[in-house]
Amino acid sequence: MKCMIITPLGPGHESVAAECRQSVRAAAAASSGPFTDVFHLIVDDRQGALGRSAARNQGIARAREAGADWLFFLDADDLMSPAAFSAVQRYTSEYDAVWGMICEMSYGHDRSQLRAGQLGSTESFHEILSVPPFLSLQIGHFVKTALAGSILFNEDMDCGEDFEFYCREWSAGRCIKTSDVFFVNRRGLHSTGPRSADGQQWLNAAERVVNNYRQKLATATDRP
């Protein structure tokens, strides 16, 4: 199997992209896990003309053309975990999308930690929706190219589009959040540009997405 790492490079992230690239190389060198090939695609959006959704969708299209079986979305300011590929190996035969625990560090520091209070390992979409979105899932996850290509990111959304994508993955595929760590989210390096958003804007948008899916599930449960 082949895996493509997709990284949009937006405004303000040029200086940290090299560290992101190196982390992917180091992880693949340590172990490629179930993958015979690991490719890292940087989608250049340094002018901010595309936005994250369109940049990721371009990456998905490139991955399909290249015959990649799996994808991993890694932002340019984040770092791949050295054990990411070996850790996902036990899940690739049973699941369509795999998340790990939210692990973070402040930019300029070298000590990472798991986010306090977050949801642990689960296969339940109801549990994902039962906690605030910043305590459940993040963008860094493995997903089969076929599933990602059937969904795509909503290019009309400038904020919260990531969580809307997750919800559609959980609705359409076999998904799991595991106790593993696949990447480290480096905080304090927000992208800039015309389609960027701050943390509060993201939270507001993601909570709207979560509330919408809670209502959908409640309606489906109430049907005779």
TrEMBL record:
Gene Ontology MF, one: transferase activity
InterPro entries assigned to the protein according to its UniProt record, in alphabetical order: Glyco_trans_2-like, Nucleotide-diphossugar_trans
Pfam families recorded: Glycos_transf_2
Domain Glycosyltransferase 2-like: 42-101
Key words, A-Z: Transferase
Coiled coil regions, renumbered to chain: none
Name of the protein in question: Glycosyltransferase
Source organism of the structure: Azospirillum lipoferum
